[in-house]
Amino acid sequence: MATPQAIQTGGGLGGLSEATRRRLQRKARIDVWFERTLFAFAFAVLLLLGAIIASLIASSWPALERYGLEFFTENRWAANVEVFGALPAIYGTLLTSLIAIVIAVPISFGIAIFLTERCPNVLRQPLSTLIELLAGIPSIIYGMWGMEVLAPLLRTWFPSVFPAGTGLATAGIILAVMIIPFITAVSRDVINTVPAVMRESAYGLGCTTWEVARRVILPSVKGGLVGGVVLGLGRALGETMAVTFVIGNNLFLNTTLTGQGTSIAALIANQFSESDGTQRSALLALGLILFLITFAVLAFARYLLRNSTGRHA
């Protein structure tokens, strides 16, 4: 059988008519250009990513050069005296994302298992559609709901824990509400890929629904579930508007769970438009840190997936 290269050059087509040979050569050229176009698209993504990294490094270098390691250890961000410390924002970003993941993962997995295993057929599609719609709600809506509803409720019900209603924990709860639809939708889709014969075999052996979910379904789709969690974590790390509404925007380090704080995205959103000079460079350095944190999270997830695949291969 003639290869695309042979068709393009006319090799191995001696037994065909001239019209057929030209048609095959034209299709081969189209296929080659199609492959080159796809490669260009893929390579453009790498170029764009490299350009973003280079731009962040170049723009943040003046602040990093001026403050050095102190930029990462300073516990306050005070633009009026040009003291810029990233520690409060880094702490707030990591803590709110961790709270969100701790709350969202078990709820999302529970909803996904209910939808795929126990939900009545008449409710399955409406509930699945509703969850997908929740994923499309703009983040500012969640922020306003957190400011107008959740924060007052927390302040009223738990005044000793949430004296102001807003804070790091409140932001973590809002982020959990936001990422639950993402993790649930991905988990539901990957659970649906488990062959029915595996479930039926387990039920036939007398397993309960809990045992089927724990010993059959979840281990079979572990990689997809981790992917859904990472997708939710990525959104939590970079969420801006909703967090800005409820986190308190305190620029001093507050190492509590419920105190006022800030995050990298919220700090950049609040100050970037009115910044210049060293302050703008420091904000861009925060953007570089957020980029590196997200990259490290994704790399760690890939490491876990590779180890999990290796053990079960």
Q: Which residues form runs of ≥5 with pLDDT under 50?
A: none
- Counting DSSP E segments of at least 2 residues, the number of strands comes to 2
Strand content: under 5%
The pLDDT mean sits at: 86
Helix content: over 70%
Radius of gyration: 26 Å
Strand order of the largest sheet: 1-2
Q: Helix segment count?
A: 13
Family: Belongs to the binding-protein-dependent transport system permease family. CysTW subfamily.
Keywords: Cell inner membrane, Cell membrane, Membrane, Phosphate transport, Transmembrane, Transmembrane helix, Transport
Membrane topology: Multi-pass membrane protein
Pfam family, one: BPD_transp_1
Descriptive account of the structure:
With 313 residues, the chain is mostly helical. It has a two-stranded antiparallel ribbon with strand order 1-2. The model has no long low-confidence stretch (mean pLDDT 86). The protein contains 13 helices and two strands. It is flat and about 80 Å long. 32% of the residues are buried. Keywords: Cell inner membrane, Cell membrane, Membrane, Phosphate transport, Transmembrane, Transmembrane helix, Transport. The chain crosses the membrane at residues 38-61, 89-115, 127-145, 157-183, 282-305. GO terms for molecular function: phosphate transmembrane transporter activity. Belongs to the binding-protein-dependent transport system permease family. CysTW subfamily. This is Phosphate transport system permease protein.
